[in-house]
Write a structure and sequence with these properties.
Largest sheet: 6 strands, mixed
Radius of gyration: 24 Å
Strand order of the largest sheet: 8-7-6-9-10-11
Distance between the termini: 31 Å
Strand content: 5-15%
Helix content: 40-55%
Structural class: alpha/beta
Shape: globular
Length: about 575
């Protein structure tokens, strides 16, 4: 008959398996519970990675990593940090989408904070029961899972998005996992598959909307900010209307960041910054067409408008240099079905008179009449950037900037290889998916990936180190410019964005720039004399620290505030 494991082995915060030394095994009464050999963390890493590689597919690898996460958090983060470029698609998009669909059926142990719309009074005790004080938390990632990674509404299953996002924050930017909290706001679901599934673990009714929803979100924000006043409140995968409204209403009051709106916009801005270094033209002279006016598309427009304003245009003039196209065609002010966040970009209907005689004004007509310098796709309409559209744009622009950002591959607006071929290699392009280099007329074109992971980990770390009271447009621009500064665009065919291969070093560079911007803009509560060292000191390293009963302290201790780098620990 098997016996229960001692707490030090059953708790992933303290368990280190075969790395327990002989002295630790004796003092913690672990003698006989482990094989005789004592392995180093490096040796455990080698074995764990071999086991991971033997898994038959991406979902199996995701499950293996989650099981490792449940057993030994330090080893989990070491595997992830050492192989981040390879494992990013496993712990996050796209594989996490499959894991989310299976969450209620594959549930093994809770991870995170589950807040139910049916029990709003539980928000405070649920957060208090984490056992963390006001200086013990750097980051909360929250989702209501209405718009998960293009797979839609997955209710409480979406907690895995919060868990996965924090895993990337830790692996890429060194956020201490024991100072981060994943949260899901369970407000119901409109997914009938879940509602009819007897094993579904969430609130079993349609989504709550209107005043009760807004009050629930407000209660979460107020409580989280009160209990953890220095923490950054990251919002992820909310529905388009809710996401923008929550951000606009609360950005001035709370340390709030929405990656779908601000992160996507900023990483696209980084690629445009690089492209304009090649073209030699300023932001104020650009004409932008965005095909796909959802959360991501409008977020991108927002960031590029902000860049135009900083380059000398007033805001109205900058907005007039942006054209948005959605399912109903070019957005114009005579449409009665525009979302709130789209209305500011609606063009005068009179402007587009005569552009087409076939009803809705589509992409081809818009490109023909606007002659954009930048074309960005966030539509998920495969093949929307046709040869006709691309060549028409290239007729009027020497180096057209064309970013098909939709993913996965089957939803991309055009493949970069086609865009380059149709423009005789003159287009400057990046994509939302990994794309192999394109060889054309003796030039190898390296296609950068507009992956938010290049930006948001460093942005979060910089906000934490500086204890910024809010995330400002200047901080987002600083993050974008820091990412762009890591791309070497001088050579023909060079990528517009850096590779994801060394995210940890990249995130540190971004964090320094963001913290400096926070200080410059007067929103920083912490102003280190040496920002570079402060960022390095704040980055947690996955290694085994002292254990209770063996030495003072322990892997789960929480040293207060940024700038401290305790060993050990694990996500909550």
């Amino acid at each position: 008959m098997s016996q229960a494991l001692p707490p030090v082995m059953s708790d992933p915060l303290t368990n280190r398996g075969t790395a327990f030394t002989a002295e630790e095994r004796e003092r913690l009464e672990l003698v006989g519970r482990l094989p005789d050999a004592v392995l180093s963390l490096d040796e455990q890493l080698q074995r764990a990675y071999e086991q991971l590689r033997r898994q038959p597919d991406a979902l199996a690898k995701n499950v293996y990593l989650e099981q490792l996460h449940d057993r030994n958090e330090v080893l989990y983060y070491r595997v992830l940090a050492d192989h981040l470029a390879e494992l990013l698609p496993i712990v996050y998009d796209p594989t996490v989408g499959d894991a989310i669909k299976r969450y209620s059926h594959e549930f093994r142990r809770p991870r995170g904070v589950y807040l139910s719309i049916d029990h709003p009074r539980d928000i405070r005790p649920a957060l208090e029961h984490q056992g963390l004080g006001p200086d013990d938390v750097d980051m909360l990632v929250v989702t209501d899972a209405q718009e998960i990674l293009g797979i839609g509404d997955w209710g409480v299953n979406g907690v895995q998005i919060s868990v996965g996002k924090l895993a990337v924050y830790t692996a890429a930017a060194g956020l201490h996992p024991d100072r981060c909290i994943p949260v899901v706001l369970d407000v119901g679901t409109d997914n009938e598959t879940l509602l009819n599934d007897p094993l579904y673990l969430g609130v079993r009714r349609s989504r709550t909307r209107g005043k009760p929803y807004d009050e629930f979100v407000a209660a979460y924000l107020e409580t989280a900010a009160e209990l953890f006043p220095h923490a950054l409140l990251h919002f992820e995968d909310f529905g388009p209307d809710n996401a923008r409204r929550i951000l606009e209403q609360n950005a001035g009051r709370f340390r709030i960041f929405n990656d779908d709106l601000q992160g996507t916009g900023a990483i696209t801005l980084a690629a445009v910054v690089s492209a304009l270094k090649v073209t030699g033209t300023p932001f104020r002279d650009q004409r932008l067409v965005v095909f796909g006016a959802g959360t991501a598309g409008v977020g991108i427009a927002d960031q590029l408008v902000e860049a135009m304003v900083r380059d000398g245009l007033d805001r109205d003039d900058a907005v007039r240099r942006v054209w948005l196209i959605d399912k109903q065609g070019l957005l114009t002010d005579d449409m009665d079905d525009l979302r709130d966040y789209q209305r500011g970009y609606a063009r005068p209907a009179s402007e587009a008179e005569g552009w087409t005689d076939r009803g809705a004004i589509g992409l081809a007509a818009t490109v023909r009449n606007v002659r954009p310098t930048i074309l960005i796709g966030t539509s998920t309409v495969p093949g929307a950037f046709t040869r006709e559209v691309v060549t028409e744009m290239a007729r009027h622009v020497e180096r057209p900037i064309i970013f098909p950002l939709s993913n996965p591959t089957e939803r991309i607006e055009a493949m970069p290889a086609d865009i380059l071929a149709w423009t005789d290699g003159k287009a400057l392009t990046t994509a939302g998916i990994p794309v192999a280099p394109v060889d054309l007329k003796g030039v190898r074109h390296v296609i950068g990936q507009a992956n938010n992971a290049l930006l948001y980990p460093g942005l979060g770390l910089g906000a934490i180190v500086s204890r910024a009271r809010r995330v400002t447009p200047g901080m987002l621009l600083a993050a974008a410019e820091a990412v762009a500064g890591q791309a070497r665009v001088g050579a023909p065919g060079a990528a517009l964005l850096p590779p994801v291969a060394d995210l940890r070093a990249s995130s540190a560079t971004v964090a320094v720039a963001v913290a400096r911007a926070a200080i410059t803009e007067g929103v920083a509560e912490n102003r280190p004399d040496d920002l570079v060292q402060a960022v390095q000191d704040a980055m947690w390293q996955p290694r085994y620290g002292p254990l209770p009963g063996v030495a003072d302290g322990g892997p789960g201790r929480r040293d207060g505030g940024p700038g401290r780098s305790p060993d050990g620990g694990g996500a909550r």
